[in-house]
Every structure is written in structure tokens, then in C-alpha cells.
Amino acid sequence: MHKQSGSCHCGRVTFELQADIREAMECNCSICHREGAIWFGADDASLRILSGESDLSLYQFGTMAAKHYFCGVCGVSTFSRPRIAPNWWVVNLRCIDGIDLSELKIYPFDGRNWESAALQYAQSRKHKAK
């Protein structure tokens, strides 16, 4: 596992991600599409907020299940608690230093059609577990 460093644009929110990043997800829902975020899933033990936790703002919409965190100073979305897995984090890889997105396998997630995409995702996870 590699320690990755990341931050928002102004540098108030800094974090570390302990992970080997080889793949990520790009969601086309109304917020992710506009943000241009590329997401990597992480558990609580893998993500550590180093500074700026008090500068984070929370945005929720729709079902209010997902928690989208962003820097209240510069507005950059650093990480979220996704609706599909609210006990996990998704980290915006565009906020991690030194990540070359062209080297990653980026899977699409059809967030515009969330219910069917979530069902398809759950079925694929069950298939992988077998």
C-alpha cells in the first residue's frame, strides 16, 4: 500500500490515502458530471484527514443519503460518502498529487440512472465474490 497525499485547491483541506490505486470510477450523475470527479473507494482506515476538517462543507440532495464534502473556502470536492456505500469514502483522485489518470482503468457508473446502475453494480460485486 502506498501513501498518497492530497488536498483541495487552496490547501486548507489536506489528507492522506493509504492505497494502491489502479482503477477508479467516473459517475455521470448531475453533481459528479459537473465536478469532473474521478472517484476511488476507500474505507475509514485508508483515509486520514490531516487538516482543514473544520473548513469542510457538506452538500446533500435528492435522497440525502450521499454526503458530498467540499472545501468551504475554495469549493473543491475532495471526498464523499456515496449513496451506494455510505460507510465508505470515495476520494476525488483529481485532488491527489502525482496521479496520472491515463494510467488507470476508469469504470463508468451511470449515476443518471442510479437505481439500475446500483443494481448492476451490486450484481457485479456478487459475481466477483464467487
Can you walk through the features of this model?
It is a single chain. By secondary structure, the chain is α+β, with helices and mostly antiparallel strands. It has one domain: Metal Binding Protein, Guanine Nucleotide Exchange Factor, Chain A (Beta Complex). It contains two helices and ten strands, in the order βββαβββββββα. It has helices spanning 30-35, 114-129, and strands at 2-7, 14-19, 23-27, 39-42, 47-51, 56-59, 67-71, 77-81, 89-92, 105-109. The protein has a five-stranded antiparallel β-sheet, with no helix packed on it. A three-stranded antiparallel β-sheet has the order 1-2-5, with no helix packed on it. A two-stranded parallel sheet has the order 3-10. A hairpin with a 5-residue loop joins strand 7 and strand 8 (77-81). It is globular and about 35 Å long. The chain starts with a strand and ends with a helix.
Quick synopsis:
The chain has 130 residues and is of the alpha+beta class.
- Helix-strand topology string: EEEHEEEEEEEH
Helix content: 10-25%
Strand order of the largest sheet: 4-9-8-7-6
For the record, the CATH class is Mainly Beta
What percent strand?
35-45%
Assembly category: single chain
> Which fold name fills CATH's third level, the topology?
Metal Binding Protein, Guanine Nucleotide Exchange Factor, Chain A
